[in-house]
Amino acid sequence: MLAGYPPFCGDDPYETYHQILGGDLQFPHNLDHFTIDIIKQLLQPDPTRRLGASTITGTKDVMGHTFSLSLSLSLSLSLSLSL
Length: 83
Prior knowledge:
Blueprint: H1 13-22, H2 33-42, H3 58-63, H4 66-82
InterPro entries: Kinase-like_dom_sf
Keywords: ATP-binding, Kinase, Nucleotide-binding, Serine/threonine-protein kinase, Transferase
GO cellular component, one term: cAMP-dependent protein kinase complex
C-alpha cells in the first residue's frame, strides 16, 4: 500500500505464487531504507524467520523496528500539534 501497488503481482496466479515463495520484491525508489527493511522482514518467505513470528517477543519485535518507532513518533507529534 505504501508503494501504490501490491508487493507481488504476476501475470497469472501461478507467477504471483512463485514470486511470493521466492520473496521477489521490487520497491519504488522513493521508499526509505527503514520502510523497505520492515516490508522485507514482514514478507519473509520463511515463516520462522519473519518479523514478529517469535511467540515470546513477536509484537515487541515489530514495534521495536526503526520504522515502527518513527511511525509512533510521527503520530505522536501530529496528535500533539493538532490539539
